[in-house]
Amino acid sequence: MTAPYPHLLAPLDLGFTQIKNRVLMGSMHTGLEEEKRGFEKLAAFYEARAKGGVGLIVTGGISPNFRGRVQPLGSELSKPWHVKKHRQITEAVHRHEAKICLQILHTGRYAFHPFAVAPSKLKAPISPFTPKAMSERQIQKTIKHFARCARLAQKAGYDGVEVMGSEGYLINQFLCPRTNKRTDRWGGSFENRARFAIEIMKAVRAAVGENFIIIYRLSMLDLVPEGHAYEEVVALAKEIEAAGATMINSGIGWHEARVPTIVTSVPRGAFSWITARVKQEVNIPLVAVNRINTPEIGEQILAKGEADMVSMARPLLADADFVAKAQAGKGDRINTCIACNQACLDHVFENKRASCLVNPQACYETELLMQPASTTKRLAVVGAGPAGLAFACYAAERGHEVHLFEASDKIGGQFNFAKQIPGKEEFYETLRYFENRLADAGVKVHLQCRQSAESLLEEDFDEIILATGVLPRKVDFPGADHEKVLGYIDVLRDHKPLGQKVALIGAGGIGFDVAEYISTESSPALSVSEWNSIWGVDEDYRGRGALTQPAPEHSPREVWLLQRKTSKVGKGLGKTSGWVHRATLKKKGIHMVAGVTYKKVDDQGLWIEIEGQEQLLPVDHVVICAGQVPLRELQEQLEAAGKKVHLIGGADVAAELDAKRAIRQGAELAAQL
């Protein structure tokens, strides 16, 4: 029998050491690095992934000195007494034959503190602080600090380090004309701009000796104006190899780039083409990155010879046992990362602890524990949306007898709407995962089985969990019952036809999803070439940063996205993905209007008022996307009959559709019962 994923699971021989497979867990900052006793939790987090079969782990970024920290209290490895806490991590990982490298990251002008330094005094658009231009002495000291950090990492038991030279951080800032305006030997020509990266590599190799992994994270696609030219990428790769790098990891995009690189609408494996091209120029292993979230995609990239390893960061957040499941031929049991960013990147950029929408135990391995139940209970779960699915699975896995009731003919609740949105096809994977997990856990699933208080009371359930979800909020203005007026469920579930001119009332997540749905004829998330064309990524790499003029996009309809609030339309969307949704709709010419008062709907269309001026939108249809109310009609009757009832998900809070909160709430309740 042929082994599953033969390229993905093959060992990688580095000469002085061997990595057991081709899966690298990419660097992710979790926020645990700064928490009290956070390194104990980090050790458990990384150990779970090592136990789950990953070959090589790269930690979140750790600064080599004070000025390079992400924030004032950010993590740093620069003193001998810092070593002890890191040993907790390396010892935990090494118990499972995995290897781990510490990422050395100096933020440069991306630092969120007033002590930031950079090649030039140029403020980054994503930080409120203007950095000081580094002096010659500071540059030399920083090179030594990288070497010192690597040496301390070696003492802490790490198998290697990754030198972070991409994503717009300090080394990348020296490399690109965009951020390096120096006129001394560290600026100007490419040789001068590259000197900082090469000197760091040489110093690090000298500090740790030959038998130590050094990964260099090379920015292959800056995706910003005045970024690298392709010839410079190749020249730097060769210099980095000569300076002693063991491997080169791909870096894609700066944090300030106006091209998305990891959100769910980015096609799978969208950037393996540039790794494949650079791979032809060097002789050391190369790692492909970004939107590689299934073993099939990883296998395909490796089998085509586009890379020697594949990096997965968030996919291993979503499922610690990703590799073990692939090895066992159970890829269909993997909890696939949907690239939503909601609990990982969004949390980190808000100074919260990272986790995962589809896996609330991520980064909570020592806290959200699922122990076998001491007393087995017979539980009813009403509603198979995200909250109900999560609770049912966790509770059954703990040993409870769980009956899951769903009024429709399929599980998923609002996920069944989301999966239809162009760019959100990954939601199909979550529903596939839960369907298999329900079966494995022994949950008794009852579809097309609407429940009443009477039907639930007829059964002898110990406790009843209402995950009944939400109802769309009704609007109250003249003409709200006009034939032109539809609800978002009419559009996304019932697929009622729409005219050529449509107004959407409500510009939250649902409004944006409906706008995307009705303005897109084919999903660019399913085609790398189409996606590159739309976002202006030049596969021929003719100019700096690999940017070209984005292709125009057209909507088959004229659409107005309206909101009552006077704030920016889409302000409440995800911190790291909201701009993508806004940019996508803007490119299609969607009218986004704030501060709207709705007057009436009649045969002519929707009458609105903005700043005291009444106007008519001559639309064929008006779609209501104005929020939801909890659906909890069973609660009072069940509690009156003496039953213990729990509300989770939208049935508990329906301010906005929030799968992240719903799944976590389901998990936390299951852990307690």
Could you give the topology of this structure?
Elements: E1 12-13, E2 18-19, E3 23-25, H1 38-51, E4 56-62, H2 83-94, E5 99-104, E6 117-118, E7 132-133, H3 136-155, E8 160-165, H4 170-175, H5 190-208, E9 213-221, H6 230-242, E10 247-252, H7 272-279, E11 286-288, H8 295-303, E12 309-312, H9 314-318, H10 322-327, H11 345-349, E13 378-382, H12 386-397, E14 401-405, H13 415-418, H14 427-441, E15 444-446, H15 453-458, E16 463-466, E17 470-472, E18 485-487, H16 488-492, E19 501-505, H17 509-519, H18 528-535, E20 558-562, H19 578-587, E21 591-593, E22 596-602, E23 605-610, E24 613-617, E25 621-624, E26 628-630, H20 634-640, E27 644-647, H21 659-672
Parallel strand pairs: 3-4, 3-12, 4-5, 5-8, 6-7, 8-9, 9-10, 10-11, 11-12, 13-14, 13-16, 14-15, 16-27, 18-25, 19-20, 19-25, 20-21
Antiparallel strand pairs: 1-2, 17-26, 22-23, 23-24
Helix pairs in contact: 1-2, 3-5, 5-6, 12-14, 12-21, 17-19
Organism: Pseudidiomarina insulisalsae
Enzyme class: oxidoreductase
EC number: 1.3.1.34
